[in-house]
Write a structure and sequence with these properties.
heterodimer, A: alpha+beta, Heat Shock Protein 90, 2 domains, 5-stranded mixed sheet, elongated, B: 8 helices, 77% helix, globular
């Protein structure tokens, strides 16, 4: 009448094992699922933010282009017409009035140049035709001519064959001009170096100035709008970047843009 | 008295709840729910026979040995119908054939037919519990889990079998060795409540079978 106790204990242990194993399996799977969902959510949020940023930057560029074109075509055209009209008055005025006319024409010439600069700044016309490197050199020449700072551009490799999408060219152009703007405004630098090269199928751009630099902690805690724009534009084109700076040691930014991105 | 009403009337009659719920839905029920329905008919029949034998003062424990074999076949067939993985189905096919043979050998050679089948019933209960847990694990995330008849059937199985396994293991001890009648009564009351819980879960599952879609 008495059962085999060992067998009964074995059954009890087996049941306990089944229940505990099931609990552990369900628990682990649940944890994995929660972790996977969180990761997916984060990825979705990052993608959404990136898309939003792209849309903002795209619309910003479209608006800049429109304003630039309007300024160039409408205001520039009107100013040229005014200059022609004033020219037609040349022989009908007395000496005193002609002096005023000459001053007015000089002002109009200055306005025409200013409008052209502003419109080119808003929408660099050479970018689509001549590409990033030529446009950057033209920009550098413009800054060098002001005598405020010395900018040198180096090409480590032959970059003529490198064809960048227009969006990328524009983003990199904006980043570099913003960097120059930051250096001029905040760095008290005397020299800027831009080195372009190709390393392992990446376009690499090294930007550095010899300014006063800053503590990287400040950047981590609070970035200015200019720096945020730089980071956003680089993220938008999937470029990797590394910022290096310390007080008294200038500022350095290395950009790596994959020329053949993996889909 | 209350105890007698529960174990001798309420619980045996409660089997009519899932059966009554299923009958109007028989036409459009899937094979798996039909299997559970046939199991309930079988269980009801065995239970009724056991009660009759008890009234006639004839020992009804041999029926438990037959019931265990039937119960094993019905539940494993149910899992065979709901599992889609071939490897698991193969194991289940093997179990459906081998376990009844092993259970028969047990009452022929190892345990008397007038004892509780403490060697075989825990095996059956542990196997059914494991297979049910395995099914829940392999089904992953299920939308509207509680709106599926199958889910309620699995809930019923998990209400009854894991806890009842302990009772099955110790049933000979409670009835034939222990002299504590109160403890014995409490144990079988708990068993009755577990059976009632399983039947109610089955009834809920059957009530969710609808005309349009198969209950899978």
């Amino acid at each position: 009448m008495i059962d085999n106790v060992y067998l009964l204990i074995f059954y009890g242990t087996l049941l306990l094992f089944v229940i505990i194993a099931a609990f552990l399996l369900f628990y682990i799977r649940n944890q994995n699922m929660v972790w996977k969902q969180r990761r997916q959510l984060q990825e979705t949020q990052i993608t959404q933010q990136k898309e939003l940023l792209n849309a903002v930057i795209d619309s910003q560029e479209i608006e800049r282009k429109r304003i630039g074109q309007d300024l160039h075509d409408e205001i520039g055209g009107t100013l040229s017409a005014i200059k022609l009209m004033l020219n037609s008055l040349k022989n009908q005025l007395n000496t005193q009035q002609e002096e005023v006319l000459a001053d007015a024409k000089e002002l109009i010439d200055k306005m025409i140049v200013d409008v052209r600069h502003i419109s080119h700044d808003l929408s660099p016309p050479g970018l689509a035709v001549f590409g990033l490197f030529t446009t950057i050199e033209a920009f550098v020449n413009l800054i060098n001519n002001t005598g405020q700072i010395k900018i040198s551009v180096e090409h480590e490799n032959d970059l003529e064959e490198v064809e960048l999408p227009e969006k990328t060219s524009l983003a990199l152009f904006r980043v570099l001009t913003q960097l120059v703007d930051n250096t001029l405004k905040h760095a008290n630098a005397t020299e800027i170096k831009m080195i372009f090269g190709i390393h392992e199928a990446d376009l690499s751009i090294a930007y550095q100035d010899n300014g006063k630099g800053f503590d990287m902690e400040v950047l981590h805690q609070r970035s200015g709008i200019g720096m945020q724009n730089i980071q956003s534009r680089l993220q938008m084109i999937n470029a990797a970047y590394l910022i290096q700076s310390s007080i008294g040691d200038g500022f350095k930014l290395n950009i790596n843009y994959p020329l053949h991105p993996v889909e | 008295m209350t105890r007698d009403i529960l174990t001798a009337i309420v619980v045996p009659l409660s089997i009519l709840i899932p059966i009554g719920t299923f009958i109007p839905k028989y036409k459009y029920a899937g094979k798996e729910t039909k299997t559970i329905f046939y199991y309930l008919l079988f269980a009801g029949l065995v239970n009724a026979t056991a009660i009759c034998l008890s009234y006639l003062s004839i020992r009804n424990l041999p029926l438990l040995h037959v019931y265990t074999i039937g119960e094993t076949i019905f539940f494993l067939s149910y899992f065979l119908l709901i599992f889609e993985k071939k490897a698991i189905r193969k194991v289940l096919y093997g179990a459906v054939i081998l376990l009844p043979i092993a259970f028969t050998l047990n009452f022929l050679f190892f345990q008397s037919i007038y004892e509780f089948n403490t060697y075989t019933r825990p095996v059956e209960a542990i196997l059914i519990t494991s297979v049910c847990l395995m099914f829940l694990y392999s089904s992953g995330f299920v939308e509207d889990l509680l709106k599926q008849p199958k889910s309620w059937i699995n809930i019923g199985i998990l209400i009854y079998f894991p806890t009842a396994t302990i009772i099955f293991i110790l049933s000979n001890y409670f009835v034939f060795v222990s002299s504590n009648r109160t403890l014995n009564n409490i144990i079988w009351d708990v068993h009755s409540i577990l059976v009632l819980g399983m039947y109610l879960a089955f009834a809920k599952g059957f009530s969710l079978i609808n005309k349009k879609e198969n209950d899978r």
